[in-house]
């Protein structure tokens, strides 16, 4: 249950899809002067080194963010490009920001951040770079249910589990329904992998039925290596900000060129 470490996968194509949309949403929400809350259920360590052994071992960042930067998939003024440039100016040219530090890039005085991470080593690493946030070493769903509705009430929740626990696929629609009832004005974003065995399909079907007006953005890409089970990435967003469907379509068009 606590074996997953994102350092092996940071900056992969799933991260590129997820973080492009997350950064765009945060840029949109913070363009208005009203304060907001940002919550995250599975934060990881917040900052990754793409030159580290874990990243080099899988090569997933090379196929993801590094290729995207080399080939100019995102313009320099895209919110993710700007956030990553800031992170690399502070932490070096091979740094990659997890979602907590992407959120920090957009954080303003008056904004509140809550980050949950249960893995002891990941939580310890997160604590070294996330002094800007309220940190919770506990189950992320428990944190979200306890904090929601947050203060300020305006804001965004990112749910990004490892899916090592197969029960997550069944539990997430119930968790999101409960959170949406508690926090009906919150943007609730769920990332999920698209797998060769399609185990995510029932969860997505249940979410679509429960939230017919939500945004569901899915992209497909070649497996990172032969036999690798993840062949795509999904973002399901309840209460999507204005303009997000158009941004999702732009990102999806980039990934459409990668299909085998």
From TrEMBL:
Source domain of life: Bacteria
E.C. designation(s): 2.1.1.266
One Gene Ontology term from the biological process aspect of the record: rRNA base methylation
Residues that bind S-adenosyl-L-methionine: 19, 42, 99, 117, 139-140, 160
UniProt keyword terms in alphabetical order: Methyltransferase, RNA-binding, rRNA processing, S-adenosyl-L-methionine, Transferase
Residues of the active site: 160
Recorded name of the encoding gene: rlmJ
Listed GO MF terms: 23S rRNA (adenine(2030)-N(6))-methyltransferase activity; RNA binding
InterPro entries listed in its UniProt record: RlmJ, SAM-dependent_MTases_sf
Family annotation (PANTHER family): RIBOSOMAL RNA LARGE SUBUNIT METHYLTRANSFERASE J
Pfam families hit by this protein: RsmJ
Its biological purpose: Specifically methylates the adenine in position 2030 of 23S rRNA.
Phylogenetic classification of the source organism: Bacteria, Pseudomonadati, Pseudomonadota, Alphaproteobacteria, Rhodobacterales
SUPFAM superfamilies: S-adenosyl-L-methionine-dependent methyltransferases
Subunit-structure text: Monomer.
Cross-referenced Gene3D superfamilies: Vaccinia Virus protein VP39
Protein name per Swiss-Prot or TrEMBL: Ribosomal RNA large subunit methyltransferase J
Site residues by UniProt (Interaction with substrate rRNA): 4
GO cellular component: cytosol
Catalytic activity: adenosine(2030) in 23S rRNA + S-adenosyl-L-methionine = N(6)-methyladenosine(2030) in 23S rRNA + S-adenosyl-L-homocysteine + H(+)
Family indicated by similarity: Belongs to the RlmJ family.
